[in-house]
Design brief:
Dipeptide-binding Protein, domain 3, 17 helices, four-stranded mixed β-sheet, alpha+beta, D-Maltodextrin-Binding Protein, domain 2
């Protein structure tokens, strides 16, 4: 009997050990099979509130956490998101959205019993009205055309029922649906706003493919898979990844070493790594890195340029030779954009030999909009026209820039000097340059413009006379009544072919009047480990991780 009991105890002990070992092995196996996408954000993240999503470093994580009414595909075509369909009234003033009924907010302590509830039209009313608070959002200018007059009972947004949401405009605006793709217009639950108050910026609650887990500011941000996400790939629920982690290493050499070591799956942007180390002068990966990484390059809706203050009502313009159009055109012809992009950007981007509207926009056509190329003979002729033959008596011109662009501007300086145009370079801190340009304190300055949404209006608005800085973004104070007439017509035009023609005419006016010196149209550039599958790029440089897969057997 004693022997039998001992035997039973021994068998039970063996079974327990077996179960424990199997459980531990299974647990370890599960851990090994979890897929986590890791990337570095040098600039850090200041907020996870979509109302504050005014730069790439915030927009990227916010895009994983939240959804809006509509979204863009990689070809910049509008597609449904939380709104499954929509209609626009014949007069272009009323937009009606019918919402899906299967979208739920992430589970969170702000909800009853911690369970996320279904999204309804009223949530969009509250979310959009919240954008009017300047303390919360920087999207106020985007709401200027919302009709909150007596005509709409002072309500620009209205929930007709749980699944129908309406927006009212004062004037037709053909770019409006594209504006709604911006992350500002994501839906947020009022419970989270009430529960977290000002701390909502670091306690995000959305509907997106990933949900918030942890944020150690300046160190790391962790997002986990949303098991209840509403989008499918046809049959499988998205996303595929189990988690996303974001690091905040500021030194690009350190970040690149972490990429080489496999800690990061991607580095993004020409400033994120040493392009001279990684790329040849033709913009291709050097052989040493070709087996380890994929190089992703994509047209980017971003134009880098020199801005020229042209408003002769401003004292510094009255005293500047840049008030003369012929001199501004001479500067445009006075340097080689092709060489600049090749030797100082390793062919990242395209030389801006058309207008201000960048490559990637529907209206972009360098055969129609004739821009500038390097032409010393034309420089010579234009200097004579401007009253400065061979640069005689031409005062030295100061070009204000930041340290990031010192090599490029020094190249421009050197070539202009060869063509009898003397330029002095002043290197400012970014915040100083930004403020001075907005305050119209500089005659000539280096600037860039990134498209906030996929419509040419966003680029041409920089030259509309009613948008003069510092209130608006017309930093050059360019004013042309013919340009304004075309602009006002284009923003109401629904036919894309007609819009293209109008924007091409405006772009050619800018080239002819020369309040700007277009330099290059930028590109999205990413270094991505070869075990990352399904990571696509788009001209908005938006990071979409819901369709990404990661193979864990990568070495």
């Amino acid at each position: 009997m004693i022997s039998y009991i001992k035997t039973v105890k021994l068998v039970a002990l063996c079974l327990l050990i077996c179960v424990f070992t199997t459980t531990c092995t299974d647990s370890q196996s599960d851990k090994d099979h979890r897929t986590v996408f890791n990337y570095n954000e040098m600039a850090g993240v200041s907020s996870l509130d979509p109302a504050s999503a005014n730069n790439t470093e915030v927009i990227w994580p916010v895009n994983q956490l939240y959804n809006g009414l509509v979204q863009l595909d990689d070809s910049l075509k509008l597609s449904p998101c939380i709104a499954k369909r929509w209609t626009v009234s014949e007069d272009g003033l009323t937009y009606t959205f019918v919402l899906r009924n299967d979208v739920f907010f992430h589970n969170n302590a702000c909800f009853e019993k911690g369970k996320g509830r279904k999204v309804v039209a009223k949530d969009f009313v509250i979310s959009f009205n919240r954008l009017y608070d300047a303390k919360v959002s920087s999207a106020l200018s985007l709401l200027a055309n919302i009709d909150r007059t007596e005509k709409t009972s002072y309500k620009g947004f209205l929930a007709l029922n749980d699944s129908t949401f309406e927006i009212y405009l004062k004037e037709p605006f053909s770019a409006f649906l594209n504006v709604l793709t911006m992350k500002y217009f994501s839906v947020v639950p009022f419970e989270a706003i009430d529960f977290y108050g000002q701390d909502f910026r670091r306690n995000p609650v959305g509907t997106g493919p990933f949900k918030f887990k942890l944020w150690e500011e300046g160190t790391k941000l962790v997002l986990l898979k949303n098991e209840n996400y509403f989008e499918f790939d046809g049959k499988n629920r998205l996303p595929y990844l189990d988690a996303v982690t974001i690091s905040f290493v500021k030194d690009r050499e350190t970040a690149f070493m972490e990429l080489l070591n496999g800690k990061y799956d991607m580095l993004s942007g020409a400033d994120a790594f040493n392009i001279n180390e990684v790329l040849d002068k033709n913009g291709n990966l050097k052989p040493i890195y070709q087996e380890k990484f994929d190089l992703q390059k994509q047209t980017f809706l971003k134009t880098d340029y020199l801005g020229i203050l042209v408003d002769e009502n401003i004292d510094i313009v009255k005293k500047s030779p840049l008030r003369i159009k012929a001199l501004r055109k001479a500067i445009n012809y006075g340097f080689d954009r092709v060489k600049m992009v090749k030797y100082f950007r390793n062919n990242i981007g395209y030389p801006a030999t058309a207008g201000f509207i960048p490559n990637g926009m529907p209206s972009f056509n360098q055969n129609i909009v004739k821009g500038y190329s390097y032409d010393p003979e034309k420089v010579r002729q234009l200097l004579i026209e401007a009253g400065y033959p061979e640069g005689k008596n031409l005062p030295e011109i100061t070009l204000h820039t930041t340290d990031n662009y010192s090599e490029q501007t020094e190249f421009i300086q050197s070539q202009l000097a060869d063509n009898h145009i003397k330029v002095k370079i002043s290197v400012d801190k970014p915040v100083v340059l930004r403020q001075a340009v907005a305050s119209c304190e500089y005659n000539l300055f280096k600037k860039s413009w990134v498209g906030d949404y996929a419509d040419e209006e966003n680029f041409m608005s920089l030259f509309y006379s009613k948008n003069f800085a510092p209130i608006g973004s017309n930093y050059t104070h360019y004013k042309n009544p013919d340009f304004d007439i075309l602009f006002e017509k284009a923003i109401k035009e629904q036919n894309q072919v007609t819009k293209n023609t109008l924007y091409q005419q405006m772009d050619q006016m800018l080239i002819d009047d020369a309040p700007i010196v277009p330099l290059y149209y930028d590109q999205v550039i990413r270094l991505v480990h070869k075990n990352i599958i399904g990571l696509t790029t788009n001209p908005m440089n938006l990071l979409n991780l819901k369709l990404v897969k990661k193979e864990n057997n990568h070495k």
